[in-house]
C-alpha cells in the first residue's frame, strides 16, 4: 500500500510563513489611490415598516453618495438558498442589523457622521422570537404565508412497537444556544474597477464563486464582468458564507467609478453575519434491560432567525445525526427550520451535527444510569460498526472506527 502524501506528513502551509511574520495581506490592509469609504446604516428595530430620509446627511461636506434600495441596479436580493435578504431594505426590516442605506464619503469620519444624520421612521410591527410560537398558524409571519421553511422526516421501523418492547424509556427536552463565530478579523473589503472595466471586490469570504453570482445579480451585470478576490482570511467558521458587505462595495464603486473601502467594527460584525442555529430538541429513547436501543423519537425545532441562509442543510443534517452513532431499529425524526425575528442563523462548524449530540449522548447516559450499566459499555453495545445501518438507511461499508476509539479512550483513562 502506497504511503499517503499528506496524512502523517509534516506539510508546510503555503500561507503560514506570511501570517507568522505579519506579512499576510488582509482586506483592511489594502489602500488604493483616490479611495472612498463606506458605512452601512442598519435597523435598530426587530420588525417594522420604514421610511428613510437622507437629505440632511447628503449635505455633510465630504459625502459623495448615499445608496438605498432605489439605487440597486439589478435585483434587490441575495441569499445562499432562498433570495430572502434585500441588499437594502425597501419597505420593512425583520431584525436588528438589517441594512437600510450605505454612505459613501471621502473619509471614515465623514461617513460615520453622515450615517448618524440619516433619519429613519419606524412603524413597529409585532414580532416573534420563539420558534415554537412562530410555527403556529396565527403567528406573525416573517416571510410569506408560513414561518416553517423546511421539514425533514425520517421514518424507520415502528417506534411504537419499539417502545412497547422497551424495558426503560427516557423522555427529555434539551436546548442549545445561538452562538457567534467571533472570528479574529471583522469583515472588511475594497472594491474598484480594473483596467478591463470589470467590478472587482477584495473581501475575505468562504464562497467567492457564490459572491460573484450574487454581486452580478444585484448589479445587473454579466457574471464575467464581476471579479471576487479573496485576500487572507482571519477566521470564518461558516460566518463568511453569506454576503455581508460585498454587494454594497460593488454597487458603490459602480455608482462612483472609484475605489471604495469598508472595515466593520466588532459590533457591526455581530450584526452583519449569521449565527449557529439554536435548536429545541425533544428526545424519547427506549432500550431493553441489557441496554440495547430499540426505539427513538426525536423532534427538532431550529430557529433560523429572520433569514433562511443554510437552514435547510443545517436542519436536514441535524435530523440525520439526531440518533447519534448508534444502531436503532425503530426511528421517527421530525426536524424543522423556522423563521423568527431573531438574528439570522446559518453555517457554523458542524452544520447541525454539533447540536444534536447534546441530546442523544445525554439520553445514553441517563439510560445507562437507570439500567445500572457502565456508560462506556452501553455505547459499545450500540455503536456503529462495519455493516451497521443508520437511521436513514445508509449501510456503513468501511471506515467505522467508533468502537476502537471508545476502547482506546477507556484504556487510556484507566491506565492514567
Summarize the structure.
This protein is of the alpha+beta class and 416 residues long.
Description:
There is one protein chain. The protein is of the alpha+beta class and 416 residues long. Helices cover 25% and strands 24% of the residues. The protein has 2 domains: 189 residues, Aldehyde Oxidoreductase, domain 3 (Alpha-Beta Complex), CATH 3.90.1170; 190 residues, Aldehyde Oxidoreductase, domain 4. It contains 12 helices and 15 strands. Helix 6 crosses helix 7. The longest helix has 15 residues.
Q: What structural keywords apply?
A:
Aldehyde Oxidoreductase, domain 3, five-stranded mixed β-sheet, Aldehyde Oxidoreductase, domain 4, seven-stranded mixed β-sheet, 25% helix, 416 residues, 15 strands, globular, alpha+beta
Amino acid at each position: 500500500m502506497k504511503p499517503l502524501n499528506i496524512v502523517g506528513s509534516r506539510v508546510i502551509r503555503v500561507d503560514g510563513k506570511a501570517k507568522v511574520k505579519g506579512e499576510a495581506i488582509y482586506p483592511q490592509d489594502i489602500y488604493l489611490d483616490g479611495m472612498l469609504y463606506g458605512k452601512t446604516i442598519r435597523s435598530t428595530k426587530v420588525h417594522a415598516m420604514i421610511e428613510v430620509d437622507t437629505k440632511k446627511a447628503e449635505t455633510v461636506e465630504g459625502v459623495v453618495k448615499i445608496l438605498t434600495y432605489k439605487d440597486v441596479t439589478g435585483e434587490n436580493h441575495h441569499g445562499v438558498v432562498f433570495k430572502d435578504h434585500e441588499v437594502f431594505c425597501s419597505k420593512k426590516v425583520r431584525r436588528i442589523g438589517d441594512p437600510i442605506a450605505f454612505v459613501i464619503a471621502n473619509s471614515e469620519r465623514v461617513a460615520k457622521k453622515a450615517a448618524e444624520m440619516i433619519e429613519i421612521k419606524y412603524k413597529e410591527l409585532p414580532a416573534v422570537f420563539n420558534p415554537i410560537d412562530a410555527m403556529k398558524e396565527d403567528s406573525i409571519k416573517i416571510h410569506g404565508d408560513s414561518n416553517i421553511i423546511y421539514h425533514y422526516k425520517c421514518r424507520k421501523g415502528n417506534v411504537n412497537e419499539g417502545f412497547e418492547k422497551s424495558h426503560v424509556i427516557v423522555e427529555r427536552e434539551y436546548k442549545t444556544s445561538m452562538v457567534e463565530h467571533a472570528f479574529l478579523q471583522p469583515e472588511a473589503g475594497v472594491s474598484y474597477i480594473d483596467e478591463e472595466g470589470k467590478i472587482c471586490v477584495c473581501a475575505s469570504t468562504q464562497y467567492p464563486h457564490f459572491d460573484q453570482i450574487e454581486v452580478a445579480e444585484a448589479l445587473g451585470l454579466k457574471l464575467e464582468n464581476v471579479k471576487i478576490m479573496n485576500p487572507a482570511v482571519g477566521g470564518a467558521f461558516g460566518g463568511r458564507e453569506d454576503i455581508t458587505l460585498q454587494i454594497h462595495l460593488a454597487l458603490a464603486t459602480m455608482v462612483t467609478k472609484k475605489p471604495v473601502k469598508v472595515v466593520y467594527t466588532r459590533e457591526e460584525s455581530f450584526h452583519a453575519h449569521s449565527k449557529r442555529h439554536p435548536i429545541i430538541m425533544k428526545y424519547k429513547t427506549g432500550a431493553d434491560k441489557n441496554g440495547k436501543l430499540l426505539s427513538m423519537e426525536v423532534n427538532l425545532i431550529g430557529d433560523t432567525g429572520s433569514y433562511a441562509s443554510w437552514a435547510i442543510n443545517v436542519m436536514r443534517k441535524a435530523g440525520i445525526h439526531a440518533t447519534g452513532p448508534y444502531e436503532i431499529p425503530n426511528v421517527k425524526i421530525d426536524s424543522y427550520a423556522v423563521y423568527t425575528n431573531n438574528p439570522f442563523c446559518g453555517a457554523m462548524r458542524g452544520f447541525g451535527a454539533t447540536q444534536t449530540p447534546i441530546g442523544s449522548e445525554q439520553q445514553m447516559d441517563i439510560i445507562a444510569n437507570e439500567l445500572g450499566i457502565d456508560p462506556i459499555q452501553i455505547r459499545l453495545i450500540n455503536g456503529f460498526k462495519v455493516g451497521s445501518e443508520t437511521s436513514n438507511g445508509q449501510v456503513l461499508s468501511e471506515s467505522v472506527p467508533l468502537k476502537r476509539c471508545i476502547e482506546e479512550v477507556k484504556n487510556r483513562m484507566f491506565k492514567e
